[in-house]
Specification:
heterodimer, A: mainly alpha, two-stranded antiparallel ribbon, 16 helices, 72% helix, 2% strand, B: alpha/beta, Rossmann fold, 2 domains, six-stranded mixed β-sheet, 11 helices, 10 strands, 38% helix, 23% strand, binds adenosine-5'-triphosphate, binds magnesium ion
Chain lengths: 435, 282
Amino acid sequence: MKIQLNNKIKAALTTISIALFLILVFVGDNVISSGSSWRMLITVIEKGSIFALVAASMNLLNGFTGLFSLGQAGFMLMGAYTYAIFTIPSASHDAVYQYFGGGIIKWSIVEVLESKIGVVGHYLGLFIPIIFAGILVAIVAYLIGIPVLRLKSDYLAIATLGFAEILRAFFQWNTLGPVTNGSNVLRKYTTYHSAIFPVVIAGICITIILLLLNSTYGRAFKAIRDDEIAAEAMGINLFKHKELSFVISSFFAGISGSLLAMFQSTISATPFTTQMTYEILLIVVIGGIGSISGSIIGAFLFIACSEWWLRGLDSGSWLGISSDLMRSGFRKVIFAIMIMLVVLFYSKGIMGDKEFSWNRFVNWWLTRPQAIKNWPNKLKSKLVSKKKARMAKSDAKARLKQEKADSDYKKASGTPLFTPLPISDQVIVFDKEGK
Amino acid sequence: MDNRQVVLKLSDLTMQFGGVVAVDNLNLLLHKNEILGLIGPNGAGKTTAFNCITGVYEPTNGAVEINGNIVIENYPKGKMKEEYKGRNLGKYTKSQTMLPDKVTKLGVARTFQNIRLFKGMTVLENVLVAMHMNQEETVFGATFRSKKARNEEKAMREEALVLLRKVGLYENKDDISTSLPYGKQRHLEIARALATHPTILLLDEPAAGMNPQESDELMHFIGEIRDKFDLSILMIEHHMQVIMGICEHIYVLNYGGQIADGAPAEIQANPAVIEAYLGGDE
Ligand SMILES: Nc1ncnc2c1ncn2[C@@H]1O[C@H](COP(=O)(O)OP(=O)(O)OP(=O)(O)O)[C@@H](O)[C@H]1O
Ligand SMILES: [Mg+2]
């Protein structure tokens, strides 16, 4: 028996669960004191949403358009910097840019907005710089895309990786210090004050990505992923659509970068390495290439593991186990092993290429009692079939051995055993001799 | 002579890969509403000719004319100039190429010898992809579901369903395309090509892998779509029964070169053709 929910119920379920989640985040953010160990939950939710967004943007490119691009960390970096540079209040410039004579940009978008439209400007000041950062990143991605998107898969990966590294070096370049503060951190820029903020922004952006993927443009992207030559023969302009996907993906990577800047409240170019791109790629793979809901689940799991659940592995004791092995860096070892296991035995990721659906979710839970009840039988039958297979194998082996022994015996004794085959053998031999 | 309008004209079309001349000086005329056959032993260069027409390959020499306009023209350049083994060197002096999607937009649709469906998608989605090129709404409007986008999407779906009904795939509309039986996949490829609103249809071995009964059905199907969609069809086929049954005129290729062309009965009696096929079978 399978339950089919109608669209109204599905929409209601979605709305309720989103509202519930937001309320819980809001309450949790205000109730859990910063000293509590549960505070980590809020941190994971904030950072998880930011990485869910960047993973979704990478999935748009890698999973839905079939472009193996590895530039995500570079675009995040650029988004983070753009956001930070344009929101440092003018009063703080001298302190932040202490080695560069207070920098050359002496204003912040927030202040300009506040002076023009007051309180509204103050709140708009949280959103406009983020969008501005996204747009700037999108423009740069557009320019990078012109030469790079003509390359085929592996070359594209190498080229985008290279561009990301160049961007990182560029932002640390001393000559640009008056703008980027060189290799020093940027700080004192405007940030959000509630954990709700990154969750909502990331949520809106991911919704937009989903809407895009379900439009005819999304279908064109998937067609390119499935078969470039056929897509082209169907009148789809390859370059235009790849560029589109690349620019949109980078736009959202830029936005997630600015959210990360806000989350961290200080930012430097150092953490935006290739390693970070790999981590994002891992989230995509763990969640499932070609599944946005997979990327979201993957992001929260990944961040929860690396920031929270596996922390103990670095500090000597974890889940009550303590060992000398567990010191700084051990977490990464365990993490790497877990990832390897996932990739080896669960290579489609958590969601495969399917999206979350209430129907499947509900039916999964409804079939659980039955599945649990059947579990011993299933296990038993599995064991039985395994045993059978093993027996069949050993039987076959024994037969082979026997046959070999027989033929050895035949060879050794020179007299054929009484079986139907050797008779015909003899006939042939007899025929041959007769000639 | 045939006084119908010429919709596709290949002039001295030559395609050379390294030292191999895959298509050698092909001259071909496709008239409006005609069904034309292109036959020849394996490796004769038939598919390569299709790829030159549709912009997948840039021909080495010669020109492709669609509806009276030269859209693709080329001559040997650079290293190819010395290596060129074909004919008519110097006759063409322009170099003009066109990407496959542009050719499709001019009304030339094709199918592939080794079926190329979008594997992750349903039958309906496969057809919808082919309609994307006629969409006017921008990404922005399409993402945020503007009224125009919604209307366009609705119209596309309706048209796609009508098309699927016409080709007999309506019942399978929600199946994953690659899960269809072989014959239906071929039909879907044709349906998908029709969704681009072509005037010229290029079919690359549409009956490959079909049994005699299926290919007989296909033959009637091709005749039907020619009438229903007002098409001119150029098709490559190995099933002689299909080719002889449906084509008005046949071109024969061997080792890239054009060895004969004429009505089916003439072709069947042509000694050079018989020689090529018997020679090819050895
Ligand atoms: N991209 C390419 N590079 C080099 N050689 C090629 C290329 N494409 C085709 N060829 C060569 O061109 C020749 C013609 O190939 P083509 O595929 O056009 O033959 P065909 O007539 O379609 O044969 P079939 O009946 O087997 O489909 C072959 O010798 C093939 O090896
Ligand atoms: Mg071929």
